[in-house]
């Protein structure tokens, strides 16, 4: 059926090509550097021979006089070790960024649909955030919290005001891993129990103990992890129970009853799994599980490292999409638009257990990162980024679903707001991961000027999580590029 | 510069202080003057005026901290300082008053607060690209890794960037365990290595250890020349490490981690001969030697760039943070290509680690250290400062020990020289008074009775004089 559709489409497009030929540049090969071509508004259907074009953008990057990609790669291999992997066969030398675009060493512009892994939330070098960082860097970079400084207090207050319930004590750290480590420590101290529960396919960090919470073998080194168990993933696309949250929740109940003393320290989950491939937990899951975990004396931790700060569009925090209020919330990535910053927010009651001993974070809450973080919160509010994510996100998902009707290789389109995943399969029934095809399309997208992310255990999911200033035109360009690339597979 | 006082006055002062020390010191002495105007030593001159501060007051900040930040968050003084501006080795409070920063944001600000070269590098890079991750190339991380590797001896030339010292030590411990296939790690009592699960285990002071599982770490007797049972005999202490391995482990271990000079532990320099002997033992047990250079690294010890160099050893893994970026959140682990390969078995990734802004700052820091000869300055000024502090120790029984190297110095206060009873209250009092006089020092040691002096490395002899004179002035009046 799809073959027939494709043939019809092809002949239609060929007709269209004949009509449009005089407008195009037929001498240029399909994958030329087209950022210098005058941009034209894209249409819903991709033209077979002419690749879609980047939306226009009024900005000139600075000329780059630094080392070339090859020189950098050679140094990386020598001084940064073989475990430091990179994207693309011919890795990209990214030298500058502006809002939702990145520039390589030749000044070519790319649509950044991955935001440095869901991290550049407001946009590269967003002027207001830049100003906050620069001004504070000139005054005071670092002194530690042994002295007072207003930036950390103001930022903590602003962050706490975004939280529901009694979540209002903030701990600042330097990364998501540090945040989740701290959350785990709090859970164990508060409950007096050891057992932690996380979801299969989760990613919570790369440090030696958050590796225990992470549940994807690619990221797990063979080291002792302590009392951590992974329960069935409430994955609507691949999960054995589909979207039946109750069945998945029962798994948690069973684990507690058979696999623990009956009491646990805590449960941690991302509302939309990031590294795991933008998998949104089956609706209603968290409500039931939070109940079960709390009855077993455990605390509920929401990992908002990727889903937080308005990205889901419908809500500010990912956990709000499931209608729950956690006991501890961890965040990083988008919190500082790229600044090395993380945070843990919890209730005064849980925070009080941390007062038993001293825990100190030298860099945590430093004036520059706090000033940057506060600027991020203000920008998100003032520029109505959350509503924007809902708007553009639904447009993007809508267009991707249409694309799914067109290309069999798209097994699933999922997500919310600007946290979207596209899973590629070679067989829609078997859902066989289309690993090779994903890799090829990934490269093709880069050639076309779109930088996406990749995820899922089998590396067959495109992760679309751009800076939240991503526009509808950007979305159209992305979908058209994907369409174009898929048509050429 | 007060350096020599007439002998008679010195003697009468000494007698007075002796008499006072025989009294009960649990009574804290009355406050000395609370400002520096025309009484007592004066802060060296400095040509910089901070912009006027119009932000929230200290009280407003304190109340927000109480409400929105950790209840365990502490400040250093009875009346906490609101620090709003910094320039080189000085900090400014909300009233524009200048203080000598002899603590360096905990041995972190090495080039000086808002050092122009470092700020310029940070600002320029931030305007270009803050973050994209190492999934794409960027020259900043490569250039900095190369420059850093060039500062290390042997085959230590593969760098992993993290965001803190804790992350660096956690990674180092994981690497050692993966490389050797063993779990046991030995650290030294009184050490501080971090606050996450693995590093909390390696950290060895009860106040920093929560009641959670910390497995696979054994703590060796501290080779503490001042309080340790074997004095300065490094090799005798090293035997404890041998015993730990022979009796407490399978005989093969993952590794050993130590600071060359314990920072949080009170500026305790490991007894000479300890590290070479221990490193030999560890290697025999198949383990890796990890040098925690978070505080002692980056020219601070003056005589060498790295703390471990003072002990004549070459570690297998070196961890760093704090001074590496002059205050920017950055950490690093450096090891050999052979050991580094162990992480290729799976994927290790650090989202923020190695970002363009922090690595650009790191490279700027290395350049400043070299250009301004900060290592040499640390040596010269540090030696001078230690001499003056030692003279002060001879003057007052309250000072039990003066130790350290370069601009990593400690002054331990005791109420009984023989018993070495920690003078905790006196330490708090003097620290508070030092602040009133305009000097900010740090505190450490298991008993909280050690002044930690770890200023920015641009600290001068005049600054050293001011610090010592202030301390002298205060103790004399106790």
UniProtKB/TrEMBL annotation, chain A:
Main location: mitochondrion
Gene3D superfamilies: Aspartate Aminotransferase, domain 1, Type I PLP-dependent aspartate aminotransferase-like (Major domain)
CDD domains: OAT_like
Compartments where located: Mitochondrion
Cofactor: pyridoxal 5'-phosphate
Documented EC number(s): 2.6.1.44
Database matches in InterPro entries: Aminotrans_3 (IPR005814), Aminotrans_3_PPA_site (IPR049704), PyrdxlP-dep_Trfase (IPR015424), PyrdxlP-dep_Trfase_major (IPR015421), PyrdxlP-dep_Trfase_small (IPR015422)
UniProt entry keywords in alphabetical sequence: Aminotransferase, Mitochondrion, Pyridoxal phosphate, Transferase, Transit peptide
Signal sequence extent: none
Coiled-coil blocks: none
Subunit structure: Homotetramer.
Family to which the UniProt record says this protein belongs: Belongs to the class-III pyridoxal-phosphate-dependent aminotransferase family.
PANTHER family named among the record's database cross-references: ALANINE--GLYOXYLATE AMINOTRANSFERASE 2, MITOCHONDRIAL, PTHR45688
Protein name per Swiss-Prot or TrEMBL: alanine--glyoxylate transaminase
The organism of origin for this protein: Hibiscus sabdariffa (roselle)
From TrEMBL, chain B:
Keyword Magnesium: no
Domain of life: Eukaryota
Alphabetically ordered keywords of this record: Pyridoxal phosphate
Record-linked CDD domains: OAT_like (cd00610)
Any Pfam family matching the protein: Aminotran_3
Family label: Belongs to the class-III pyridoxal-phosphate-dependent aminotransferase family.
Stated name of the protein: Uncharacterized protein
Species of provenance: Hibiscus sabdariffa
